[in-house]
Amino acid sequence: MIRLTSFLTATVTIALLAGAGIAQTASVPLPAPAAAPATASPLPATQALYDSYVAANKMPGIVGAFGGGDLPTAFVSAGKIATDANAAPAGPDSLWRVYSMTKPITAMAAMILIEDGKMKLDEPVSDFLPAFKNMRVQLNENTIDSRPAARPITIRNLLTHTAGLGYTIVTKGPLLQLYIDKGLTPGQINAADETNQRKTRPATLQEFANKVATVPLIADPGTKWSYSIGLDVMGAVIEKASGMRFDAFVQARIFDPLKMKSSYWAVPASEVGRLSTNYVFLPGDKMFAFDPAATSVYLTTPSFPYGGAGLVMSARDYDRFLHMLQNYGELDGVRIMKPETAKIAMSNLLPPGVEFGGVGGATGGTSGPKMGFGAGGSVVLEDKANSMGAGTYGWGGAAGTAAWVNPVKKIRGTIMVNYFPADKWPIRDETVKALISDMQRYKTK
């Protein structure tokens, strides 16, 4: 664990929670706090919160990664990666299913291709996937009868969930059944379910995208925000635009340059000792090992890389991804994208007249202050108490993970846990409050 003085002596750390109303004068340096033992947590309130979760059996373990500027990341860990007696302690390099936190990574891969001139933000998806040329829209949610779409789906629509596509976790009625029947289920939860899903799920990413194009949309493209498989379809677009496999492109343009060595679509057998177990809460708040690490579905190669929910990652790796975004596209002297590209990606990209009002926490979404939507993640549009402030970009995962970055204030945070439902405990709100308490402690010294 890093020393207090190495984390909180620079003035940039005073801005860590400026968006939450703690410090509005970040340019004024504060005295450095007294040195503490090397084993002390730099974020004691956050550490106490996480310790309390484990002590109360709310989760086997949890890891947080929090950073300000280019100072060393502060990792806060408690508990273990499973309830098993011999499970490893939770730590910066433990592996967690991040589910929808995959979406921002897929979106940034798309933004890299836009910067490369391989595609345009408002270009029709059908330029890359011809099957999307003549889309249709369902007449109402009680039927799959349809009419021609008023306009084509664009790259912007896929990035912002305004394409009119559905999602089995939110779609209802006969359209949901059609998604299930066609195997439009780009994700995996455990080995037993995966055996069933593979009976109908397309075997390749391109086949998956072509099947998506045969299903009616829920609304005309560009007219409504609705959580969707848009980032999974984006994976297929990335393949066509780049001439590379989707996962290979992400590896070459994001993971390798950023030295993200613990990010996997399929976890190697050699790394199973770092893989957490995913739990589901039963009545009485009992935890059931829904996807045990030793037999996890994530130890096998998926049908194809799921751009919306497919990655297993460490807190250290996700923090490096966020740190790159915090620096507008650069980390450790390596540039992933131009500053202007990163700024566009983390801005409100919703089509005119479309608003984003948040999405249920159980799906991995976020809610709170007024928000827009950027490339694969929400964008906070206003400063509000107990938030990270205007300019914050981020998203969460269906198994409880959460991540955010505010490049204006030079702050970022990642929370790693693994259990269903994601909103069983209010760890996102409580973590922010604990961080505010930690920063207040130094503000008053």
Structural classification: alpha+beta
Q: Order of strands in the sheet with the most strands?
A: 2-1-16-15-14-13-12
Please tally the helical runs, counting DSSP H or I stretches of 4 or more residues. Answer: 12
Total strand segments: 17
Helix content: 25-40%
Number of domains: 2
Summarize the biggest pleated sheet: 7 strands, antiparallel
| CATH top level label of the largest domain | Alpha Beta
Compute the gyration radius: what is it?
A: 21 Å
What portion of the residues fall into strands of 2 or more residues?
5-15%
| Inertia-based shape | globular
First-to-last CA distance: 22 Å
Mean pLDDT: 89
Which stretches are poorly predicted, pLDDT < 50 over at least 5 residues? 1-38
The CATH homologous superfamily of the largest domain: DD-peptidase/beta-lactamase superfamily
The CATH architecture of the largest domain can be given as: 3-Layer(aba) Sandwich
Task: Write the CATH fold name of the largest domain.
Answer: Beta-lactamase
- Helix-strand pattern, N to C? HHEEEHEEHHHHHHEEEEHEEHEEEEEEH
Helices, strands, pairings?
Blueprint: H1 4-8, H2 44-55, E1 61-68, E2 74-79, E3 96-97, H3 102-115, E4 136-138, E5 146-148, H4 155-160, H5 173-181, H6 191-197, H7 205-212, H8 230-242, H9 246-255, E6 263-264, E7 278-282, E8 286-291, E9 312-313, H10 315-326, E10 330-331, E11 334-335, H11 339-345, E12 371-373, E13 378-380, E14 393-396, E15 402-406, E16 411-416, E17 419-420, H12 427-443
Parallel strand pairs: 7-17
Antiparallel strand pairs: 1-2, 1-16, 3-9, 4-5, 6-9, 7-8, 10-11, 12-13, 13-14, 14-15, 15-16
Helix pairs in contact: 2-12, 3-8, 3-9, 7-8
